[in-house]
Amino acid sequence: MNVYTESFLRPEPWTVDALCATTDAEMFFPEIGDNATAANAKKVCAACPVIAECREYAARTGQQSGIWAGVTARAIQKTERAKRERAA
After folding, report:
1. Which long-range contacts (CB under 8 A, 24 or more apart) does 33-42 make?
2. Are 45 and 20 in contact (CB under 8 A)?
3. What is the DSSP letter of 34?
4. In 4-38, which positions are buried (b, 16+ CB within 10 angstroms) versus exposed (e)?
5. Radius of gyration of the chain (CA)
């Protein structure tokens, strides 16, 4: 169970510089098969100064959907799983 405290709800500092914060958030959660919207989201990510922080956040928080740091949440999960398997 998550306990929603003020610190839990506070945005992470890096999000202030995130380019996605200045665009339509729905772009980063395209419908399945909407490759054009996904490509546009990935272009925004490619120019973002906090792409590394975004990717780390998505991996750390186990994001299940969306475009994070220019890739899908599923791709980040796959990469993280491979890292854990190599470390074991």
Report:
1. 38/67, 38/72, 41/67, 42/67, 42/70, 42/71
2. yes
3. -
4. eeeeeeeeeeeeeebbbeeeeeebbebeeeeeebb
5. 14
Residue 7 placed within a domain: no
C-alpha torsion sign, points 60, 52, 72, 12: positive
Output the pLDDT for position 1.
Answer: 44
With respect to residue 60, please indicate whether it lies within any of the assigned structural domains. yes
pTM of the predicted structure, to 2 decimals: 0.83
Evaluate whether residue 8 is within a structural domain.
Answer: no
| pLDDT tens-place string over residues 29-53 | 999 999 999 999 999 999 999 999 9
**Bridge partner list, 71:** 68
Range of the domain at 76: 13-87
Q: Can you read off the two tokens belonging to residue 18?
A: 């995130």
